[in-house]
């Protein structure tokens, strides 16, 4: 109860309540997350189930246009799927990939950053040069090569079945240096402090010192990085899906919905690609605005109050 009272009276919550951009971004992001979680109950059909798809309903315009149907508020795509349902399920896939890809990045980055910063020497030099090499390459380039090789080696059918796992792993592995460098910098600042020296004196092992004592004092920057990285992971997935190396058309994400409807945009069926694109833009914008606010609040050097 005391912790709740401290939180509700904190400067963090006060600054959040008095910042309309942060509140608005949080509300929009919360609505997107709720829509993704409850997609099976909010949608009129399951776009992944071929039995519920009627090709005769293809390319019906949104309800506010002539020829629209109330059963399909955002219209239908070229396969006859309800676009609103496809967007809700696609939102679910995109957010899932974004969150789990960041978890992979964070896990790799924390482990490598802790070991590199604490041990130093040749270990530090090796991991930091490896990070430099990886940062010199585009995330999309690495992902395109890895996914294209996997698809060519194991076939499109297996790739379609494992698309979510592959995207999470590829995007996650490609972005670990962001976390590793941040954690390493914090560890370098912490390892010479008295509490670390005291832990060494009483005989604690290096893994225990790193995990139980140093790590908790290096986590504050990760919240800001994670917010931005979720947005980056969703953008990467959308770009890969648009290029045909992401989610298959049968299990569309927001990116594959945009890709599937792109060829129809100039034939009059603009909504198939435009509406998912707007949803993706608003989602990314809300995450980035929230990340910018967190950066300003959690970095005291930027505070101008």
TrEMBL record:
Its main location: membrane. It comes from the Bacteria. It is a multi-pass membrane protein. Keywords: Cell membrane, Membrane, Transmembrane, Transmembrane helix, Transport. Residues 91-291 form the ABC transmembrane type-1 domain. It holds the Pfam family BPD_transp_1. CDD domains: TM_PBP2. One of its GO terms (cellular component) is plasma membrane. It is found in: Cell membrane. The chain crosses the membrane at residues 21-42, 93-121, 133-152, 158-177, 221-243, 264-290. GO terms for biological process: transmembrane transport. Belongs to the binding-protein-dependent transport system permease family. This is Peptide/nickel transport system permease protein.
């Amino acid at each position: 109860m005391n912790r709740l009272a401290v939180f509700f009276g904190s400067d963090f919550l006060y600054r959040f309540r008095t910042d309309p951009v942060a509140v608005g971004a949080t509300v929009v992001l919360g609505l997107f997350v709720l829509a993704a979680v409850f997609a099976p109950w909010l949608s009129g059909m399951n776009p992944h189930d071929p039995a519920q798809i009627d090709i005769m309903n293809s390319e019906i315009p949104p309800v506010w246009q002539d020829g629209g149907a109330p059963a399909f508020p955002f219209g239908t795509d070229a396969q006859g799927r309800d676009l609103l349902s496809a967007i809700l399920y696609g939102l679910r896939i995109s957010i899932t990939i974004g969150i789990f890809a960041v978890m992979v990045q964070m896990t790799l980055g924390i482990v490598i950053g802790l070991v590199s910063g604490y041990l130093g020497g040749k270990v530090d030099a090796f991991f930091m040069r490896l990070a430099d090499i990886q940062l010199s390459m585009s995330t999309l380039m690495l992902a395109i090569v890895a996914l294209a090789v996997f698809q060519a080696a194991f076939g499109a059918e297996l790739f379609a079945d494992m698309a979510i796992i592959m995207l999470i792993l590829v995007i996650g592995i490609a972005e670990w240096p962001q976390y590793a460098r941040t954690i390493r910098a914090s560890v370098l600042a912490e390892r010479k402090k008295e509490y670390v020296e005291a832990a060494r004196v009483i005989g604690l092992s290096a893994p225990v010192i790193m995990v139980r004592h140093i790590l908790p004092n290096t986590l504050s920057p990760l919240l800001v990085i994670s917010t931005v990285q979720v947005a980056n992971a969703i953008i990467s997935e959308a770009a890969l899906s648009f290029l045909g190396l992401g989610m298959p058309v049968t299990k569309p994400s927001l990116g594959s919905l945009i890709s599937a409807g792109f060829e129809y945009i100039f034939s009059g069926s603009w909504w198939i690609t435009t509406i998912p694109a707007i949803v993706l833009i608003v989602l990314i914008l809300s995450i980035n605005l929230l990340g910018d606010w967190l950066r300003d609040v959690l970095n005291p050097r930027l505070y101008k109050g």
